[in-house]
Amino acid sequence: MKQQTLIPDSGFTDHQSPNSNPNDGLNGGKVTDLGNGSDIVYFPRFLTPEKSWGYLHYLNKHIPWTRPTIRVFGKPCVQPRDVCYIATEGLKELSYSGYKPDAHSWDDFPPLKEILDEVHKAFPGSHFNSLLLNRYNSGNDYVGWHADDEKLYGDNPEIASISFGCERDFLLKKRSYKKSQGEVEGEPPSKRLKKSNGVEQYSFNLKHGSLLLMRGNTQRDWLHSVPKRLKAGSTRVNLTFRRVM
Ligand SMILES: O=C(O)CCC(=O)C(=O)O
Ligand SMILES: [Fe+2]
């Protein structure tokens, strides 16, 4: 049985979207069922390209980006991308890899509030209250395999990820301690790869203005990454909206 999630499938699937074309997902979300109550909904054109360029320029210029030192297996490591954290006042503090980012206020960044409103409108019933921003200045910047499974997000966190600028690959692979959950039905809008080592992996090429939603058991059962791509020549900014419980 499919796990119940906060955000329903309805409203943004192709067949219900007024301008939808079943082939390109225009204005529509395509669901990729990862099995066992995990799925991804991908909206290639969540925001128009024009609006998205405006946001990219704004974020590049006005966000107080930092490149903190975190700890990986106990060793200090400079994070291989710029980051910033925005959160509603009074929430539990975020801490990952030995790093506690300062929480900036939504009020200082009106365009981010505007995007948050768009996300809430698109997903009635959602209550995102924090945002982790990432900036990849070149194809050398990346995020390694991880899951956003910190306790403060609860058991089945829904994470809405919006991308601006340079297209990059977003990969998902099943956590290795989990057994394969069997076949996935239908044609996903992503490349489904079965690696020679038997690891099931998915790849989404995240477009300028796109939104990718991870939900259900995705953080429990899957890892995701944005690997280095030496041919990626320009800046990409990514916003991940989360709900601290
Ligand atoms: O840049 C992305 O698309 C993913 C970022 C991410 O996984 C994170 O911030 O946790
Ligand atoms: Fe993540």
From TrEMBL:
GO terms under biological process: DNA alkylation repair
* Ranges of biased composition (kind: Polar residues): 1-24
Q: List, for all copies, the residue spans of the domain called Fe2OG dioxygenase.
A: 127-245
Known PROSITE patterns for this protein?
FE2OG_OXY (PS51471)
InterPro entries per record: AlkB-like (IPR027450), AlkB-like_sf (IPR037151), ALKBH2 (IPR032852), Oxoglu/Fe-dep_dioxygenase_dom (IPR005123)
Residue positions annotated to bind substrate are F73, G74, K75, D149
Chain residue ranges for the region called Disordered: 1-30
| Residues where 2-oxoglutarate binds | N134, Y136, H146, H224, R236, T240, R242
Could you tell me which SUPFAM superfamilies the record lists for this protein? Clavaminate synthase-like (SSF51197)
- This protein's source sits in the domain of life called Eukaryota
Any one GO MF term held by the record is: cytosine C-5 DNA demethylase activity
What family is this protein classified in?
Belongs to the alkB family.
> What is the protein name stated in its UniProt record?
Fe2OG dioxygenase domain-containing protein
